[in-house]
């Protein structure tokens, strides 16, 4: 499949649809609108960016051996292919390990890593570890809030992968359930009478839990709540952000949670300035939303590593090798390690993947380039 041809086809169809109900009587305005639409006002050119590799951290098994995590985390957090597969051990990214360490020190934090970086594990592992150490069936110990029900549904499937696969039907080490308003009355009643360790919800339903009489059981079962997580924290801005900030303060009071850990995740909470400036801004915003001070050290960013070997593009020999590959006189290798040492791989990664930030010398994502 030609992805770029598909893109052009979709845009063309959407343009025809959009133009079909645009009727402008004034010729000058109509010409200007048509000109802007032809220049891509409503559909900019696609952006090409590589998903970079992340610096590896410790494995789950290593953290269990060091008594950072409960021993059953080794059974739960594994790469499982199917229901009866125990899978292989997981090695975490460095930022995931940092999140676990901060949670272990009873500090709130915000994870600002990019798409595909495993942000959900950065709070799910500390939550599951806490439940295992404290014991299951002791009320709601964590509430995870999503801006959309689709994200809550997706997270439930992710939890199924870890907490159900490889375990028997009656061998649930940690319980969890979705409570978003999608459930029928029978399911909601069952959850209220027998609440899970982890509750997946949205901020509107969380507001209703605090205010509706029929949800009072959940408030009582969440006394001493340990984790309150807001996924996609950047979506809560303006008036909605103020509402959520007040909601968090009310949760702390309603759940009598003096040691409540607030966790936020966002890939796009701050995009302007250096990584240092972005961290400062995220810490300030999170402090306002959570109602407790978030230190800059508790804003966790991603640590990237290159896949391709370093190349000196000022060298005539390197430029000739690159030119030969681009012109087709030399075929690039299909074997990963060999291709990773090619000048072409290094050029692609530098152009579309990662770059060194001048101010800090840190590897950061390359700004996407239009095709």
End-to-end CA span:
18 Å
| Strand order, largest beta sheet | 9-10-8-11-12-7-13
Q: Sum up the overall morphology in one term.
A: globular
Percent strand: 5-15%
What Rg is obtained from the alpha carbons, in whole angstroms? 25 Å
Low-confidence stretches: none
Quaternary form: single chain
Number of β-strand runs: 17
Structural class from helices and strands?
A: alpha/beta
Global mean pLDDT: 88
Tell me the helix content: 40-55%
Q: Can you summarize the main beta sheet?
A: 7 strands, parallel
| DSSP helical segment count | 15
Topology overview:
Blueprint: H1 3-20, H2 27-38, E1 47-48, E2 53-54, E3 56-59, H3 60-65, H4 73-76, E4 78-79, E5 88-89, E6 91-93, H5 94-104, E7 109-111, H6 121-134, E8 142-146, H7 149-163, E9 176-178, H8 185-193, E10 198-202, H9 203-211, H10 216-221, E11 227-230, H11 238-254, E12 261-265, H12 275-290, E13 299-300, E14 304-305, H13 316-327, H14 336-340, H15 343-352, E15 354-356, E16 363-365, E17 369-370
Parallel strand pairs: 7-12, 7-13, 8-10, 8-11, 9-10, 11-12
Antiparallel strand pairs: 1-17, 2-14, 3-6, 4-5, 15-16
Helix pairs in contact: 5-6, 9-11
Structure, described:
By secondary structure, this protein is α/β, with parallel strands linked by helices. The protein has 15 helices and 17 strands. A seven-stranded parallel β-sheet has the order 9-10-8-11-12-7-13, with helices on both faces. The model has no long low-confidence stretch (mean pLDDT 88).
Structure, briefly:
This protein has 371 residues and is α/β, with parallel strands linked by helices. Helix content is 44%, strand content 14%.
């Amino acid at each position: 499949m030609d992805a770029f041809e598909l893109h052009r086809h979709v845009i063309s169809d959407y343009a025809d649809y959009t133009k079909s109900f645009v009727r402008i009587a004034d010729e000058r305005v109509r010409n200007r609108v048509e000109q802007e639409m032809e220049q891509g006002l409503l559909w900019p050119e696609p952006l090409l960016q590589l998903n970079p590799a992340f610096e590896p951290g410790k494995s789950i098994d290593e953290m269990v051996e060091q008594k950072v995590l409960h021993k059953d985390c080794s059974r739960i957090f594994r790469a499982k292919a199917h229901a009866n597969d125990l899978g292989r051990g997981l090695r975490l990214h460095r930022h995931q390990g940092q999140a676990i360490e901060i949670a272990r020190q009873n500090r709130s934090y915000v994870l600002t890593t990019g798409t595909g970086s495993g942000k959900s594990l950065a709070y799910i592992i500390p939550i599951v570890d806490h439940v295992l150490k404290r014991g299951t069936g002791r009320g709601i110990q964590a509430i995870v809030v999503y801006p959309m029900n689709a994200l809550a549904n997706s997270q439930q499937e992710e939890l199924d992968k870890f907490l159900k696969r490889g375990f028997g039907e009656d061998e649930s080490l940690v319980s969890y359930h979705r409570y978003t308003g999608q459930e029928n009355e029978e399911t909601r009643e069952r959850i209220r009478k027998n609440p899970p360790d982890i509750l997946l919800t949205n901020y509107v339903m969380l507001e209703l839990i605090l205010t509706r009489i029929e949800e009072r059981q959940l408030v009582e079962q969440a006394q001493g709540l340990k984790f309150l997580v807001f996924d996609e924290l950047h979506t809560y801005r303006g008036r909605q952000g103020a509402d959520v900030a007040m909601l968090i303060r009310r949760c702390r009071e309603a759940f009598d949670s003096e040691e409540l850990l607030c966790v936020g995740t966002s890939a796009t909470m701050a995009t302007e300035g250096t990584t240092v400036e972005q961290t400062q801004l995220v810490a300030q915003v999170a402090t306002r939303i959570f109602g407790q001070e978030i230190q800059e050290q508790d804003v966790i960013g991603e640590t990237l590593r290159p896949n391709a070997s370093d190349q000196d593009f000022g060298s005539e020999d390197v430029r000739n090798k690159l030119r030969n590959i681009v012109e087709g006189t030399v075929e690039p290798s299909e074997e990963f390690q060999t291709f990773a040492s090619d000048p072409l791989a290094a050029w692609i990664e530098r152009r579309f993947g990662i770059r060194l930030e001048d101010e800090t010398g840190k590897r950061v994502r390359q700004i996407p380039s239009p095709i």
